């Protein structure tokens, strides 16, 4: 159910818009702000919006690298610290919270995040996570100084969230709308074949995404099955002890029949025991969706702990995660730094090392918010709302600007100058019609989904139950969400308005 929207988005959005952004950057030889200003002075706000989105992304994204460092440092222990539950203070049993959930979830929510029960209980900065975040930003800064050489079911089709998720996956994985592609492409040779690169990068990106999803769902299926079987075994053991049944008389196959029998023959005893009997369901385990950071740190660590030589695979996995994370951060920071270094006012007064250092330092200080006890809730707010709607608007304006303001024929001539041939009918149809219409449809889907959802909610960790519970966002969190969306999207009309006023004043 997800792959159909994904491939439609890849063909209609991903490849055409990747090609468009690479071509714009390569032709204009500027970062996002300068490139769109050349196309039209009224479009200066598009580049500013891209920089703001990249800044928001950099603020919270490097926290993932901080968590990866945390897990990497703990990967050298034997046994792995998330392999078993820790003993309680009396050393007579395991921690209650861990027994109610799993060792991997306990390590993530309690020992890594030390998460608070709600967004309102902000708590203190966790110094271990703050040090890991500082290390992550130091690595990013050193990489910048050195420079970079490379860097379900079918009814889901009617669900707007599926299409929005598919578009978000394409936009984030290819880096569309952030300005990083334009920034990197501005350093290309003027005759570089950006069309070929757009096709190759899109296909390799999607192939690796699908390969990763196969591995991910295999691990997730294993985790669900393991939890389901553990639940069944606990219920069987409880019934055997409570009713003094023979060993082997209760199995997973006859459990439901035996429960009905015991309920009928021993109603009082069964009623007393009933609150302790969990309703084990494989469907429920599979439907307990884990995504984002939970997927990377809970599900994979669950699989790693059951492997032979788990320390080796743990180190390999979290080093890989760091390589991906640092690579993404270099793209994000390039989208911020390139427009700044393009500015004569800034570039003539400060060397690149100072500009890079200031950007990294500001992001690191603001990022300390995400290392607080409620930091993971703020992380989810930024992850869900800082970029999604903004990217849709940015990419829509970019497409319309190239096709109808700069002109598709003029753009064709630029491409002929760069790569020696004009774009074929596929690219032109996608740029001029299909991509803009699809993005407008996604806008409608997004707003419809927002209206139907009503009050925005988030998943909070309940330590007493050992599971996530749904809560409404407080009013100040809703205000922050509004500011995150408005801060970038409003740059586009404001940029055009400021340019119009300046031109009007000049004439007068």
Please name the defining characteristics of this protein.
mainly alpha, metal-binding, Solute carrier family 6 member 20, 508 residues, transmembrane helix, two-stranded antiparallel sheet, 21 helices
Describe the structure in your own words.
This protein has helices at 3-28, 32-39, 44-74, 96-100, 103-112, 127-146, 160-174, 180-185, 194-243, 255-265, 267-273, 282-287, 293-304, 310-342, 344-347, 352-367, 375-385, 388-419, 425-453, 475-489, 491-507; strands at 457-462, 467-472. With 508 residues, the chain is an all-alpha fold. It has one domain (2-507). It has a two-stranded antiparallel sheet. A hairpin with a 4-residue loop joins strand 1 (457-462) and strand 2. The protein is elongated and about 95 Å long.
> Helix- and strand-based class?
mainly alpha
- Describe the strand arrangement of the main beta sheet, using strand numbers: 1-2
Unreliably modeled segments:
149-153
Assign an overall shape. elongated
């Amino acid at each position: 159910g997800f792959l159909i929207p994904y491939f439609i988005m890849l063909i209609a959005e991903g490849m055409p818009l990747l090609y468009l952004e690479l071509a714009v950057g390569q032709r204009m030889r500027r970062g996002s702000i300068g490139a769109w200003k050349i196309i039209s002075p009224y479009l200066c706000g598009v580049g500013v919006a891209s920089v703001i989105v990249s800044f928001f992304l950099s603020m919270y994204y490097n926290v993932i690298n901080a968590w990866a460092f945390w897990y990497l440092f703990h990967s050298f222990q034997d046994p792995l610290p998330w392999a078993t539950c820790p003993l309680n203070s009396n050393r007579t049993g395991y921690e209650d919270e861990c027994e109610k959930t799993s060792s991997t979830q306990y390590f993530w929510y309690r020992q890594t995040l030390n998460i608070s029960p709600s967004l309102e209980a902000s708590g203190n900065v966790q110094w271990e996570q703050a040090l890991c975040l500082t290390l992550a930003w130091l690595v990013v800064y050193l990489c910048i100084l050195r420079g970079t050489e490379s860097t379900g079911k079918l009814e889901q089709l009617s669900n707007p969230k599926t299409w929005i998720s598919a578009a978000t996956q394409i936009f984030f994985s290819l880096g569309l709308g952030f300005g990083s592609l334009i920034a990197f492409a501005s350093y290309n040779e003027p005759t570089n074949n950006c069309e070929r690169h757009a096709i190759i990068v899109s296909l390799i990106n999607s192939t690796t995404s699908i390969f990763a999803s196969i591995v991910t769902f295999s691990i997730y299926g294993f985790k669900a099955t393991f939890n389901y079987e553990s639940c069944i075994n606990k219920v069987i053991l409880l019934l055997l002890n409570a009713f003094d049944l023979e060993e082997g008389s209760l199995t997973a196959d006859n459990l439901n029949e035996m429960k009905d029998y015991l309920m009928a023959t021993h109603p009082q005893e069964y009623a007393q025991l009933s609150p302790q009997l969990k309703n084990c369901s494989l469907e429920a385990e599979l439907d307990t969706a884990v995504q984002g950071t939970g997927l990377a740190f809970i599900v994979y660590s669950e699989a790693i702990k059951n492997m032979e030589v788990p320390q080796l695979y743990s180190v390999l996995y979290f080093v890989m995660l760091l390589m991906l994370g640092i690579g993404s951060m270099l793209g994000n920071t390039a989208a911020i730094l390139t427009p700044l270094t393009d500015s004569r006012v800034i570039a003539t007064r400060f060397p690149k090392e100072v500009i890079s250092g200031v950007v990294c330092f500001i992001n690191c200080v603001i990022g300390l918010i995400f290392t607080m006890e409620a930091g993971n809730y703020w992380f989810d707010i930024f992850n869900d709302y800082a970029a999604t709607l903004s990217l849709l608007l940015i990419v829509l304006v970019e497409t319309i600007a190239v096709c109808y303001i700069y002109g598709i024929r003029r753009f064709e001539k630029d491409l002929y100058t760069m790569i020696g041939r004009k774009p074929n009918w596929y690219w032109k149809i996608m740029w001029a019609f299909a991509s803009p219409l699809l993005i407008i449809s996604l806008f409608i889907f997004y707003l419809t989904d927002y209206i139907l959802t009503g009050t925005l909610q988030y998943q909070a960790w309940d330590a007493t139950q050992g599971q996530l519970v749904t809560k409404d966002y407080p009013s100040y969190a809703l205000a922050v969400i509004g500011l995150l969306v408005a801060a970038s999207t409003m740059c586009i009309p404001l940029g055009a308005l400021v340019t119009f006023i300046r031109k009007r004043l000049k004439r007068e």
